[in-house]
Input
Amino acid sequence: MEKKKILAIKDFIESAEKSVKNAKKLLTEILREEWVSLDEITLDTSWLSDYKSEDNKIVEWVFTWEEMLGADGYRYPVPSNYSSKSKLVQWDKLKLTIDPTGKMLYKQIQPIERETKVWLLAKDNGKFQVVAEWMSYNVLTAAVTHFKWEIGDSISILLPAGKAATFAAIEAVIPKA
Output
């Protein structure tokens, strides 16, 4: 009886390995089409930490776009109103404090060096983006709708300086002449 379970587990593992291999191959193809390498978007969290302070759990994390990747290996959602108000940029280092009741308090502790660009606001497949030349960056819908910006508006965006990104923080709309 145990032999059947062991063989079933072995089959599950082999199936999972094939699925991961195929997923990596598909991801590589997509990234190649977008002119981005997997190395450029892989986030290293070894420099982050998680610890306890009194009864609170503290997790350092890096902002990825709509979520954060924590030192504990988990992905946490980030409220879009916090992201847009704080103008979070991919790779920013933040701290999450989780109290015993589950309440979460976010705090930016180390912003990454930024660069500012001005591009046009667009919408593709239901997602807002800024577009110029051969690149496009996703932007938070909450930031666009809150300020009632429109497709075609010139938008000032923040990007991580010298790093590949898929997301841009909106700084401001450039008034039309």
Notes: The CA atoms of residues 28 and 38 lie 7 Å apart. Residues 1-33 form one domain. The helical segments are 2-33, 38-41, 80-86, 141-146.
